[in-house]
């Protein structure tokens, strides 16, 4: 895998550090609209080629994957053009702003026999997959609670009138898209699509959600997913059944460890050896690519589409409108 990156933020550096840990994967090019920011990133990670022209990057034969870490609203644009030019894609969360965008990308990837991955760490973490194995031991499920709340470094500026992308409907921002989406991935990966989706949110004057609660109803249990960028809380997830519980320690995108309680017996698990959570997803993407594991690939695509559908239902239930809705 030879990867060209889009974006120069912290998440890109975390991704590049993960790439260094995985065999047969390398970053061969860095793209940014500004040469100076591209150069700083390329020098830090010993990447020889930089681009300020996206079309030029897409013509680079030494790149077969495009990693997209642009503002949320631009994921679709960059991914679509990459696929049209025969490049495989790894796209940061949220996958797309609308269901129509997701369906278009998926159809095109399949038509061109290309890979299209959402870089959502949760599904690939060993602790998450261990949780999935343990759920049947809990008996009949009754309640699921997830909370990922983190006071945004940009929130004070937002209150002062400076609107960053993360709080801008034009850029598909907000608490649901930026942070609660991890909870939706966590729950959907374990239990599938919910039958009913509701979202009660704290909405700012510009129409963006700064925090909120998504309620998901399944056949036999209910689930709440809390996400906040305007306040802080310990992050966790709890799955309760008639025979016991599982408590995730920390946010759903890291799955740092979890407790498994049956009766009076409580055990703590942590099967993750890498501190960089992204190593596991890059490893899985590489395995799918090198082994042509289309079954696993299509499962991931179906999952990503399901989460987009749920997120859009939640967003529309709260009356939140993105610029992408009007295309």
UniProtKB/TrEMBL annotation:
Give one Pfam family: GFO_IDH_MocA
The name of this protein is: NAD(P)-dependent oxidoreductase
Domain Gfo/Idh/MocA-like oxidoreductase N-terminal: residue ranges: 2-117
The source organism is Clostridium polyendosporum
* Ranges for domain GFO/IDH/MocA-like oxidoreductase: 130-246
Organism classification:
Bacteria, Bacillati, Bacillota, Clostridia, Eubacteriales
Q: From the UniProt record, which GO molecular function terms apply?
A: nucleotide binding
